[in-house]
Structures are given as C-alpha cells and as structure tokens.
Amino acid sequence: MAGILKVDKYQDFNGNDIMTSDGSGNITINNSALKNTPAFEAYLSSDQSITDATFTKIQINTEILDSDGNYDNSTNYRFTPTTAGKYYVYSNATAYSTVNNTLDNMQLAIYKNGTIYKTQELTIGNQETRRETMSIGAIIDFNGSSDYVELFAYCDVDSGTPTIESAFKCTNFGAYKIIGA
User: Fold this and answer.
1) Which of 119, 140, 143, 179 has the greatest number of CB atoms lying within 10 Å of its CB?
2) pLDDT band (50, 70, 90) for residue 153
3) Domains of the chain
4) 132 Cα distance to chain centroid
C-alpha cells in the first residue's frame, strides 16, 4: 500500500528549516551542508597574450555563475570561497602561437594560495603545433576564509607570441563545493 505525505517544510528538532516547498513543486534547500555552493564558472572573453616560457595568470574575466560573489573577475582573477570544505576545481584552456606550428610545450596549473597545487603538461617536441587544448581538475580543501585558487598557463613557442584563446568560451575556470565530503 502506498501513501502520500504532504508537507511544506522539513525541520530539525530545534525548529530550523532544512527544506521548504512553495506548494508548486519548487523546493528550497536551507541547510548549507546540502548545497554545492559557493560555486562559480567564468571564461576568458578575449584572447590573452602571455610571456613565452613563463607561468602567467590567465585573466578569466566573464562570469557565467558566481553563487556567493567569491570569484574576483576584475582584479585578482581568483576564487576565495567563504565556506570551508572540499571543492572540485576545474579548467579548460586553449593556447596557440601567432606563428604556425611553433608551439613546443603547454602547461595548465591550478595555484592555491600563490603556489602550484596541480599542473598538467603537454610536450609537443618535434611534432610542433599551432594550437592545443588542455583540461585540469582537482579536489581541494579550503578553510573558508583566506584560501584561494587561481589559474596559470605556460607556453613555450619557437617564434611568435604565445596566446590563450577565448573563442567559444574554450578557456574557462570553475569550482563548486562537494556535498558530503
């Protein structure tokens, strides 16, 4: 035998709302432990030239989502979540040389508090190319006050200018809090 339970809110023993419903099927989760926030995703809005063979911060400047206003998209280009916990941090980036077939090496790095936390490297070697795309992701602990992450790229070219591409939002950066971790 099946039954139906109709309620407009779920509360804990102290009367705190855990979850509420507006009666139209729209549920609001009020418990922060059940939310994937703070969260953000942003992308590079125009190509960025970077210094050859040097880690350079990518100036990811156009927000798609910034749930709690924790991503600085105009000055430091960093995410500083105000809620402690584990977060999934990710990025995709496309780099190219302004001269055909001169890109030798590309690295994409997530920096935590000003130091490399994780990096991915693509060494092209004798098969030089003009354009490459990389992805990176990591689960990172944040203290909820001062910890931050930034995105850096490294490109080594034989000639021309190494450039991070912006077309079709191909260079992006994001993070979200992991529930239950």
Assistant:
1) 140
2) very high
3) 1-34 (no CATH), 35-177 (2.60.120.40)
4) 19
Q: Are 91 and 110 in contact (CB under 8 A)?
A: yes
Selected residue with higher pLDDT from 28 and 171: 171
Q: What's the pLDDT tens digit per position in 50-77?
A: 999 999 999 999 999 999 999 999 999 9
Give 97's contacts (C-beta < 8 A, 6+ positions apart).
103, 130, 155, 157, 158, 159, 160, 161, 162, 163
Q: In this structure, what token pair is assigned to residue 62? A: 């156009």
Contact predicate 177/87, CB 8 Å: yes
Distance (Å, whole) CA 179 – CA 138: 15
Tokens representing 16?
């705190």
Ramachandran class of 125: left when φ > 0, alpha when ψ lies in -120 to 50, beta otherwise:
left
The tokens 């992805």 sit on which residue?
135
How far is 45 from 148, CA to CA, in rounded Å? 22
d(CA 26, CA 8): 10
The pTM (predicted TM-score) of the whole model is: 0.86
Cα dihedral angle (9, 39, 177, 143), rounded to 10 degrees? -110
Closest CA to 36 of 83, 80, 3: 83
